[in-house]
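Table S2 (text version). Query chain:
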Amino acid sequence: MIFAACDKNGDDPDNPGAVEIENTVVTINTDGTTSSGVPFEWIPGSYDSEFSLNYITYKVDYANTQVIVSGANKDGLQNRLDGKASIPKSIILDKITYPITLVEKKAFYQCKELKSINIPETVTKIEESAFHGCTNLTNIQLYNGLSEISKNAFNSCEKLEFIQIPNSITKLGEYAFADCHSLELFSDKLPSSIGYTLEKGVFMNCSSIKKITIPEEMHVLNNSAFKGCSSLEEFTADDLYELKDSVFDGCSNLKNFSTRVVSMGTAIFRNCRSLESITVFTLNTIGTAWFQGCSSLKYINLTGEKPNHVENVRDYGLDGCSSLETLSIDRTIGMAALRNCTSLKDLGCVILSPFSQQPPFENVITENLYISKYFFTQYKKGYYNNDKGWNLKAKNVYVYSSSSAGDYSWSDDQIDECKEIFQAEIVLKGTEDKYKQAFGYSY
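Corresponding structure-token output:
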């Protein structure tokens, strides 16, 4: 690909200086000049199907009467335009108008010379990785009419500051804005035209976004959609069908989440260190690593009815939730599920069926522990088989018999053993009222 040569200062005596052609119509004359006086030349060997205009390269699609943005002269962008590129909306060749409709795959890939660019209203699609790695791009103008921003289109544009996602967008590809660390949205509400699903990693590691509102037409947030959005403070949505793996992983400033959700994957809120409360209304199980590292979490309501009550806690589900004060678990507890939960005041456990030999309780401290005979029997097996890690300490232990767990009455020897294993000061039987006082319902 050959371009007009520039001297060491970026001046080309054979071509006039770059001219602003943003969103205009440029006519290519038969003698090679242009209506706007911008630098132009046909690319040798392209048989008049590829040309350079204002240091941007284009392809003419004669069959579909359109022009495609295909690349850039990086030296020209830097020396002539100071990184500021402009694209016309149409080109006129031989009296035929060719609208510019597409930015081609990797057209500006890792073009570190690019600082700003407009995308004219005629463009309907920005293809995969078109601006991937444009680390000095700070400003881009998008218009209604753009329907697709493809996979990785603006990935790693780490200085891109503001963007308005047009309401005409119907597809926002995977990782479209991932690792855009400076990015903020002019409107916190995503366009409803995106549809049912927000794709994987679209805003991953966009560490400057503070607020997101999900339109009512969107019901699925795919893997890592907002992972690493460490400034995200406010998230608003109505009913969501599914949150897939790691959607909010590392959103360390998110404090509250209250949205009806039907299904959630793994590590949804992992390392959300500021998260204090969560309400999702329709679930009964804390999944794998959902709240791992959520050191501020105090309030959990999965069912919308019984706060801080769940049927199951999967592996690492509450690992590191050092501010959690109240929790009641009906059934299974996975490995390291409650590790380092050190501020518990009331912990109730009915059945213990760990999914691994790795203990569910490591450095777990509670003031009051409410346990069934079945739980104690299972815990004792793990405690004696692996004395390293089965470490649940309680000041007061309240024991009861649960017919649903197949319990029988407690003997005095078992009471003494319970006191020893949990390093308790007091072990009491027949404590239904005490349990109800702690959790608001009977065991």
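Notes on Table S2: Residues 281 and 304 are 4 Å apart (CA to CA). Helices lie at 74-79, 373-385, 412-421, 432-439.
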